[in-house]
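Practice problem: predict the structure.
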Amino acid sequence: MLRCSTSPRPQLGYTLVELVTVIVLLGFVGIFTFRYLGFGAQIYSDTTGREQLISQSRFAVERLSLELRNALPRSIRVDDSDNQRCIEFLPVITSSNYLQIPRPGLTANDDFIVVEPIRSDQLEGRYLFVYATSTQFIYGPSNLRRKEIDTVDLDTPQSGLLTINYNTTPSFFPTESPARRYYVTGNPVSWCYNEAQNRLERYSDYGLSQNQNTHAELLSSATYEVMAVNLVNDTSQTDERPFRVFEPTLQRNNLVQIDWRFQRGSSNEPLQILHEVHAPNVP
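Answer:
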């Protein structure tokens, strides 16, 4: 004969101690997991930041080096009184050889006839230089070796030649170039270190000036574009000034030294870029 028990079954569950133990263990696992993921994310962020810093510094160095190598010989200058914050130069638009040049005396009003350069368009309003051997001839008030082009007559006096017209006084050039070479340039360009904003800026669209413009003067009168950020040069320290220009010698060309110090935000990982550019100095 079967008998049925009517006594209640015991209830299955967790004690308070077990629940607290599980919560504590899950908390430890969550903390270590979060730290592990956060450490990986920090590594990724640091790696990306370093790559961006190196990439932008490489771009700025290559861009400035290219422009300096294409600058009018002897036009590169820095201003020591402005802590060498800015480097200025005249970009060459085109260059070639001339066949006839006005000289003092009977030929003072002769036409300036040249071999047609690779680029012969949009030369009006540009500067024409012949044997400008110093910054004084390039930026100074004298127009002896610098003229401003009015018009250009293509294929004149014959095919493959140009006649360059200008109204600059005097109309002649006092000295010929040993290589019979002329240069046509645009307006000056300056690269400046904005110490207040920790960035590198490129200034354009301003005119010639006998004395080099300071960064403050350019900031108020010229247009600029940002070329790099996170610079930390201290220009009060002579060895941290961003630009140095050395005059050419018999052994080397015009030498430009670039010294940029980068740092990412609050990280203690400085990056120094020390680069030299040898610019042609044959006018």
